[in-house]
Amino acid sequence: MSQPSSPARLATLGTVLSLLFSLLPALVWATPAAAASTTLVLNEIDYDQPSTDTAEYVEIKNVSGDAISLDGYAVQMINGASGAAQYRLFALPNVDLPTGDYFVVCGNAASTPNCEMDVSPDSDLIQNGAPDAVALLLNGVVVDTVSYEGATPGFTEGTSGATTDTANPAESLSRCPDGFDGDANDTDFALRPTTPGASNDCPEPPPPFGVCGDPADLIHDIQGNGAASTVEDSIVIVEAVVVGDFQNNGESDDGELNGFHLQEQDAETDADPATSEGIFVFAPGAADVAVGDLVRVQGTVTEFTGSGSSMTELTGIIDLENCGATD
After folding, report:
1. What are φ and ψ of residue 8, in 5° steps?
2. For an engineered disulfide with 206, which of 189, 235, 280, 303 has Cβ 3.0 to 4.6 Å away?
3. Cβ distance 182 to 34 under 8 Å?
4. Cα separation of 221 and 229, whole Å?
5. Is 134 exposed, middle or buried (0-12, 13-18, 19+ CB in 10 A)?
6. Residue 94 neighbours by CB distance under 10 Å
C-alpha cells in the first residue's frame, strides 16, 4: 500500500522536475534512423563560405516514387562537440514535394538560389563541424542524418562522417550519385559544385569492372605519345602483367613505393616507339601481387610530378583482381 508523500518529499520532487524541464531545450529527443531512407534524404549541405557565412543551406530531395507532404517534417541541427545537443530546429511547411524534386532551407534567400524556406539567422546558420550533424525528422523520428568532420554520436550513418566543406563558395557536401543513400556518410557525400534546388553535380559513375579477360583499356592509349596523358582524370580499366613489385607489405618486394609496375602483354602492344606500354599503379593497402601476375585494375589516370618531370600513373584504385601468374 502506498503512503502519502510528505511535504518535504513533494518539494524535493518538484525541485527535481523543475530542473529537468529547465534542461529540455538542450536535450535531443529524436529517435535515430535504423536504415537508409527511401522517402526524403538530406541531399546537399553548404555550411562554410569565405569570411561570414551568408549563403548556407540544406537541400532535401524526395527519392520516393510519390509526392510527399512536408507536414510533420523538421530539420534539426546538432552540435556534435557538445554531446550531440540540438542547437536549431526548423519545422517544414505543409506543402507537397513532388517525386524527384528538391526543397531548400537557407539562411538568406538573397544569396541562395532556389531557396524555398528562409530561416534565421541570415549568417552562420550551420555550425562548422569537428564534428556536427544535420538530421531530418518526421514527428521526432530521424529519417535521415548527416554527420560531417567526424562522427557525431547517434547522428552518423556508417562509421565516420562526411568530408569537410571548404570556404570555397562554389563547393558543398553533395550526395553522389544524386539522391543515393548508402547509409554511410563518408562515402555517400563528396565535395562538389554547389547546386541548391537542382541535381547534384556528380562525376560520371565508373564503367563496370568486369572479369579477367574482358576488354580493357590499352596502356599505350592511356600514355599517348606526348609528355602527359590526354585522358588525365579519366577512370580506366587495365589488364596487364606485373613487371615490378614495390608494394609496402610483409612480402619480399623490390622497394617501398606503395604500388607496382604493369606492362601490356606482347600481343596487345602497338608499333609506335613514342608510346609507352608500361604504367605504375599507386595502390596503398591493395592485395599483394607478384612479378609475372596478370592483374586487372580500375583507377584514375593521374600525372605524378616530381623533380621537374611528370609520370603517368593510376591512382584512386576502385577495384583490383589478380588473374593469376602468366607463363
Report:
1. -65, -40
2. 235
3. no
4. 9
5. buried
6. 10
Length of the chain: 327
Grid cell digits, residue 290: 607478384
Q: How many CA atoms lie within 13 A of 106 on its CB side?
A: 22
Better pLDDT: 254 or 230: 230
The grid coordinates of residue 1 equal 500500500
Yes or no: say if 291 and 179 are a contact pair by the CB < 8 Å rule.
Answer: no
Q: Is the pLDDT of residue 19 over 70?
A: no
C-alpha cell read off for 253: 618486394
C-alpha cell at position 298: 580500375
Residue 267: CB partners within 8 Å, gap ≥ 6? none
Strand 278-282, strand 259-263: pairing = antiparallel
Question: Nearest-CA neighbor of 312 among 271, 278, 286?
Answer: 278
**What is the mean predicted confidence (pLDDT) over 118-123?**
97
- What pTM was computed for the model? 0.67
The average confidence (pLDDT) of the chain is 88
Rounded Cα distance, 196 and 91, in Å: 19
Block residue for cell numbers 605524378 = 304
Q: Rounded to an integer, what distance in angstroms lies between the CA atom of residue 150 and that of residue 164? A: 9
Residue 148 has pLDDT above 60, yes or no: yes
pLDDT at 165: 94
